[in-house]
Amino acid sequence: MPNPSGRPVYHPAGHDEQLRAVLQDLKAGRWVSTRNLLDSTPDWGLWTQRTQILAAAVAGSDVIKAWQAEEPHSAAASVLHTRVLVERTLRAHRAGHRHTNELWREAAAACGSAIDAFPEDPVPWVCLLALAQLDKGQRWDEHRVPAPEPMLFPGPWHLLAEADKRDPGNREAYHRMLQFAYTRRPGGPLTEAVNFAHWASGSAYAGSALHVLPLYVRVERYRKDGGAEHALDLHWIGEDATRSALRALHLWFEHALPAATSLLDLSHLAHALWGAHQFQDATRVFEALDPFYTVAPWTYRTRSPGDADAAAEAFMQARTRCLSAARDPG
User: In which domain of life is the source organism classified (predicted)?
Assistant: First the structure.
């Protein structure tokens, strides 16, 4: 059981010990251990997760370009290069950078090249999904394809289908689609996002991280409604909220492997169970998280969203409450 007084730590690799070691090397400009790790990564889900974390860590450096120069035919180097270009484009977009469109074109071209070179890999399709959210107003035909169900929105469904074909239920692909749903109605209601999350989780297999998707939409709704500014927080203890949290617990958490599990998914589940007063079950998730935490969703329980220290405090308070309840259920 985690120490309730122990301060949690953040690390993007979480419980993936091999990835933690490789990240340190890659940030220092050494890529051989990254190549070896990716060459031995056993499945597309973990490949997707590892390449995303690695690229985000070195998006500001040229270490992947140096690797490509040494091994121009490396699939791992090519995919990471594509990942880096997409990450730079998304960062430029968020910052309102004037060269965003140029970066976007370069990243999209890299995705196309990776698809041609490595047709079995879902990551280039996931990257195209990530770029789709930049298409404000859905000007491109490929971003307004009719949905597979009448209650869903037109969007880049063929991109999701291509990723899904290569790795059914790919976690990042569905999260990218959820982000696309948010951008369709900025500042508007989240009905489309809610429908998508329930559609995706409703058909997911046991052990799929897609069962956590509805919890992300609930956090987004809470954030938009003012979060910690609510005098009375009834958002998390309703029947629907509790049902979604317990469904994710039983259909995802109880089947998941810790090293391949997203810390964000664990954090959202712990947060939802705590908010629903399911303290015993929340304790199990806090134990699985130990010693890590993530800023979201805890940051929305503070009056300073984005402040990592305030988020850590909110996390520790929730964890202490759950651990206390677990020790003394009466």
Answer: Bacteria
What pLDDT sits at residue 263? Answer: 96
Residue extent(s) of CATH 1.25.40 domains in the chain:
1-184
- Please give the single-letter amino acid code of residue 81: H
The domain 1-184 is classified under which CATH number: 1.10.10, 1.25.40, 2.40.128, 1.20.1070?
Answer: 1.25.40
- Summarised one tens digit per residue, pLDDT across range 180-194 is 999 988 777 899 999
Closest to 293 in 3D by CA, of 316, 274, 277, 276: 316
